[in-house]
Design brief:
Layout (H helix, E strand, L loop, with lengths): L1 H31 L4 E3 L6 E3 L7 H4 L9 H78 L2 E5 L6 E11 L4 E6 L10 E2 L4 E12 L7 E8 L2 E9 L7 E12 L4 E12 L6 E9 L1
């Protein structure tokens, strides 16, 4: 576009020069027309002096002298008209391009706003994802510590009675079936709560009468030093030599609470594992 504008300016300058030349030629012709004339003696008519003016044939457009100035002027005028049309066409294109540029700028601004909103949403989602991952880790850790369960029987091998007639003793269940979390000790007979929550416990005692034993056998579940539930048996006659008793309870425990079984009398166990103690965490609190 800049090159066409320069070309148009050059042609306009050339047109100005040509028009100036035409004006100079007309002034010269006007000056020549004022040359001396002679009076015709016969008819009294004025006749133009026959003195020859130089350059007259060239000024009248002699083909041998060069192209006609009016032909060049017409050609130049056509070129200027054509360039004006080109210039107008280019101006229209520039206007259309500027309008399109403004429209694109508006679209770009709208997209920037949308991208900013999307970026904020992504930041929020990233934050929520981090929080969720943290919660998942906490739940995994809690679930791992929530897997608490145990079950054991009195004797690991053999059979026989265990107990005393002189008072309560803590029953130690030696044969461990299950001990998830290792919170039951087969050396002390104590279950120690690893966390606060609701727990279920059940114990079963098998009683076999022996003549040297007294006739009443009592088993109790203790929370720390407090008896909670009881089972037992008494022998009325020698025909009822064997009996079993059981009980169960749901307890809310704090961390470190101890649950155990204590017997006043004797309990029996053999390869059938008749005397047992079991418990598990229902849910943490």
């Amino acid at each position: 576009m800049e090159t066409k504008l320069k070309t148009c300016s050059a042609l306009l300058v050339l047109l100005f020069c040509c028009l100036s030349g035409v004006q100079v030629q007309e002034d010269s012709n006007n000056h020549s027309s004022s040359a001396p004339v002679a009076m015709d003696s016969v008819g009294g008519r004025l006749v133009e002096d026959q003195i020859e003016r130089p350059g007259t044939e060239t000024e009248m457009g002699d083909p041998a002298a060069g192209p006609d100035i009016w032909t060049e002027f017409a050609t130049l005028r056509d070129k200027v008209t054509e360039m004006k049309l080109d210039l107008r066409w280019m101006e229209n294109r520039v206007t259309a391009a500027e309008s399109r540029g403004e429209e694109l700028q508006k679209q770009n601004d709208a997209q920037n706003v949308e991208l900013e909103a999307t970026y904020l949403k992504l930041q929020d989602l990233e934050h929520r994802l981090i929080v969720s991952e943290s919660q998942v880790d906490n739940l995994k850790e809690e679930l791992a510590t929530s897997k608490v369960a145990f079950s054991a029987s009195l004797l690991a091998s053999g059979n026989g009675n265990m107990g005393t007639v002189s008072g309560d003793f803590t029953v130690i269940y030696e044969n461990v079936f299950t001990n998830i979390g290792n919170h039951y000790s087969p050396y002390t007979g104590y279950f120690t709560a690893p966390k606060k929550g609701m727990y279920f416990f059940r114990f079963t005692c098998y009683f076999v009468y022996e003549p040297e034993f007294h006739a009443v056998h009592i088993s109790r579940l203790f929370l720390n030093d407090n008896p909670i539930v009881v089972t037992g048996d008494s022998f009325d006659h020698l025909k009822d030599r064997e009996d079993s008793g059981s009980n169960g309870v749901v307890l809310q425990l704090e961390v470190g609470d101890v649950v155990s079984i204590k017997v006043n009398g004797y309990v029996w166990d053999d390869k059938y594992h008749r005397t047992t103690f079991s418990g598990f965490l229902l849910f943490p609190m």
